[in-house]
Amino acid sequence: MGDVTKEMLYAEVVEPDRRLGETVSSLEELVSLMRVTNRELAEGRARTEALKQALFGNRFETAG
Q1: What whole-number distance in Å separates Cα of residue 4 and Cα of residue 6?
Q2: Pick the residue with more confidence: 7 or 40?
Q3: What percent of the chain has pLDDT over 90?
Q4: Cβ 60 vs Cβ 52: under 8 Å
Q5: What is the C-alpha to C-alpha distance for residues 11 and 50, in angstroms, rounded to an integer?
Q6: What's the rounded Cα separation, in Å, for the pair 18 and 34?
Q7: What is the dihedral of CA 38, 42, 43, 49, to 10 degrees?
Q8: Is the terminal CB of the chain with fewer CB neighbours within 10 Å at N or C?
Q9: For the chain, first and last CA: distance in Å?
Q10: CA-to-CA distance for 53 and 47, rounded, in angstroms?
Q11: Average pLDDT for residues 3-20, to the nearest whole number?
């Protein structure tokens, strides 16, 4: 087996840091996308509830 140099050790230490940075960046993008998706879902639920109320009034509440 060959000699281990400082450059080889440095490369072994830096690579996980680089990958960790990429992972953090990807997670931040995912969180942002999830927030947008949750907001859109909440808006859709609100529209659905408003339509149900307009179409059926309180019939669902008294029947259940």
Answers
A1: 7
A2: 40
A3: 55
A4: yes
A5: 59
A6: 25
A7: 160
A8: N
A9: 76
A10: 10
A11: 89
Question: What is the DSSP code (8-state) at residue 42?
Answer: H
Tens-digit pLDDT profile for residues 36-45 = 999 999 999 9
Instruction: Report d(CA 44, CA 52) in Å as an integer.
Output: 12
Residue type, 6: K
Question: What token pair was written down for 3?
Answer: 């000699």
Residue in 41, 42, 61 with CA at minimum distance from that of residue 53: 61
Name the amino acid, one letter, at 43.
Answer: E
Concatenated DSSP letters of 34-59:
HHHHHHHHHHHHHHHHHHHHHHHTTH
Tell me the whole-structure pTM to 2 decimals: 0.63
